[in-house]
Amino acid sequence: MPTTATPNTTGKSRQEEQRGEQQEVQQLLATAPDPRPGLRAYLEVKRAALLAKREAEREAERAGSVTGPNRLRARTKAEERSGVRRIRIRHHQILSDSPPDFAGYDLGPASPEIQLGVLSSCLTHIFLIQAADLRIPLDSLEVEVQADQDPRAGRPGFEQVPIYPHNISYTVHITSPAGKARIRELHETVERKCPIYNLLINPQHITGRVVLTGSPEEI
């Protein structure tokens, strides 16, 4: 049965409602302890933001104004003369480069290294979110990711060696007064909910196309 949007009976525009939601978030954040002293205090701020986000989502569902999936975008351009890859994501920029022995200037990590960094960042963030949600105190958190990449991959005698990073592993370094059972619960929850971890452990379908600049023709 199709969902019917609930009419707006308050007389407020969607923009006004959004401003009200933002004010509620700010009020919740204002009641949380100052995050500067350490990670435990920050988790209280994170929990306040998480609860506010869930409430906003419930309000959107009740109002019938739930939006569809977000289309994420990243764009990379090779810089002239240097070949440095400038990655643009929203208003952020990341440089990716090759080492000097491969016609680069080492101005940024290589793509496989960025991939490991993305995994470690995502795992770290989800640990923070779930620790806040489960009320598991953390004093420190650091995630290290490692992988093998063999430059001989694909050469004669090494045809079976993957060209991509493999044997990926991660280690989470946590300082917490919580018991082992609660830390285990946190770890299991993170692996269920971490987007990039699940992206990497599950097969993906990727489509691609090439467009000639200044021409509608695709190759």
UniProtKB/TrEMBL annotation:
Residues 1-12 have a biased composition (Polar residues). InterPro entries: KH_dom-like_a/b, OsmC/Ohr_fam, OsmC/Ohr_hydroprdx_reductase, OsmC/Ohrsf. Residues 1-37, 55-79 are annotated as: Disordered. Residues 13-22 have a biased composition (Basic and acidic residues). Transmembrane segments: none annotated. This is Osmotically inducible protein OsmC. The lineage of its organism: Bacteria, Bacillati, Actinomycetota, Actinomycetes, Kitasatosporales.
